[in-house]
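Researcher: Next entry in the queue.
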Amino acid sequence: MLGPAIAFGQLGALMQIPEQIGALMGGLADQPLTVLLVVTVVFVITGTFMDSIAQIILFTPLFLPLATQAGVDPITLGIIIVLTCEIGFLTPPVGANLFVAMRLARVPLGAVSVAVLPFLLAYFAVVALVSFVPRVALLLPELMGQAAR
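Model: Structure for this entry, 149 residues:
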């Protein structure tokens, strides 16, 4: 799974796909919240079908140049990517973690899907918080950087 994902990432960079996506989005690529919204939607949708590692390897090279061009900190983008990958893993009806929980709890998929909704809302709230207030995501790295000095 990793081999083709890495090859696709390199091919995308070689073919300048991030630049083409930026041109396709037009002036919207300059708005940090718009870029983060697109990242969130893409990662949540693909997260219901793909593994997180494959998602990160495939899509991060596409979105990182757009995000940095729009002024999004790479740490903030990384946190949003990880959170949205987990949201995709929990999203009914295909989220992989739902099937794990279903087997462990020995309950039907519908019961697990309903039980996970409060957690999905919490995840979306955190993604919104990090998107609108990026300092929240950067607080700990900044404190760690000051402690290392």
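Model: The helical segments are 2-14, 17-25, 32-47, 52-70, 74-90, 96-105, 109-132, 135-148.
Researcher: Noted, moving on.
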